[in-house]
Amino acid sequence: MEAEDAAGSDDAALALHWTPYKPSWLRDAPLAERLTYLDCPHTVFRQILATGRDLPEAAWQRLDNDLDVSVRRAAAHRPDTPPEVLLRLIRAHGERSHVRPLLVDHPNFPRQELRGFVDEPDPRVRLLALEDPELPDAELRRIGDCTESFLRAGVARHPNVSADLLERLLADPEPTGAEDAAANPVLPRARMDGIITEAGL
């Protein structure tokens, strides 16, 4: 099929690149058979292999260093993932926000490292600092000064944000950030009432 795809076959291209095939049968195969897929050139097989829970340590080391990040993410969701593996993966690639549970919520994730993410150059990783519910005001202000609107909105939703920082975020040029600031229960009730009055509601 790959040869047909290379030759320009539309059917082969559709089968290889558009069909969301998942070899779920591999999950139930004997361990020895599953391990033969460690070197499989097709990522989807290594992804399924990485969802197992009974692999030997040598296999986990291979999967934790797989060339494809989706394989590394799948492997990282096992119960005994080492903290350094989780931290390395998060620092390099951030989270996939639509996948639950988040890797930062893994029992082995070193949550004391979250505050260090404030200085990460990648805004997707910097966002994860906000997973610390006790992030200090100084760090919240630094993130609140970022150019990325989703970071400012994250600060506006944070439970430890100060009322005066919320006041500043109420003037955010992006409506979502301003709305998140207005909805944060940290904002004084009188200010909330004033916002509703100003809106004519």
TrEMBL record:
InterPro entries: ARM-like (IPR011989), LRR_variant (IPR004830). This is Leucine rich repeat variant. The lineage of its organism: Bacteria, Bacillati, Actinomycetota, Actinomycetes, Kitasatosporales. It comes from Kitasatospora cystarginea. It holds the Pfam family LRV.
